[in-house]
Amino acid sequence: MNEIIEILEKDARTSPEDIAKMLKKKPAAIKEAIKKMEKEGIILKYKTVVNPDLVKEEAPRVRALIEVSITPQKDLGFDRIAERIYSFPEVSSCYLVSGTYDLLLIVEGKDLHTVARFVAEKLSPLENVKGTATHFLLKKYKEDGVILKHREENKRIAITY
Asked: Which of 7, 23, 74, 137 could form a disulfide with 63 if both were Cys (CB 3.0 to 4.6 A apart)?
């Protein structure tokens, strides 16, 4: 893989000047390479990993992993139905996977009922969807290679008799 991409995947905030130092190249060449990769669609987005436990938010969003079993379409395979599914705004990620199910979705909603309604009213009724299994995410420990630190809970003192 391209060395510049590897560096940016670890930390998207690494400046072209710092990348140039790491790779012993000129900053202008690094800037040009990054601009070219953005234009070609190799680099699509720069992402921030947020620890939701430390964000003071009124109502944290609910995330769920949904396994979807589908019937592939003749001459189109899984792509057409996957495109239909990932077009829903509730779907933040969609993967074709091996195993019991065909697609793995990451779905977000304001609460459990929103995600459940999405599955019941939008996803399950689709013609090629044979079945789903929903797993709600309860707690994040690590995301995109980053270990998330959690707030210290009130630790109870052990009582012995």
From this structure: 137
Crossing angle for the helix pair 16-23 and 3-10, nearest 10 degrees? Answer: 130
Q: φ and ψ at 135, to 5 degrees?
A: -125, 115
Contacts of 26 (CB under 8 A, 6+ apart): 20
Residue 96 three-state SS: strand
Q: Which tens digits make up the pLDDT trace of 110-122?
A: 999 999 999 999 9
pLDDT (tens digit per residue) in 51-66: 777 777 667 789 999 9
**The pLDDT value given to residue 48:** 83
Q: How far is CA 144 from CA 32, 39, 138, 150, 157, in A?
A: 27, 24, 17, 16, 35
Q: Map out the domains of the chain with their CATH numbers.
A: 3-39 (no CATH), 54-138 (3.30.70.920)
**What integer pLDDT is reported at residue 1 of this predicted model?**
54
161's CB contacts (< 8 A; 6+ apart) are: none
- DSSP, res 8: H
CB-side neighbour CA atoms (13 Å) of 41: 0
Q: For residues 101 and 67, is the Cβ–Cβ distance under 8 A? A: yes
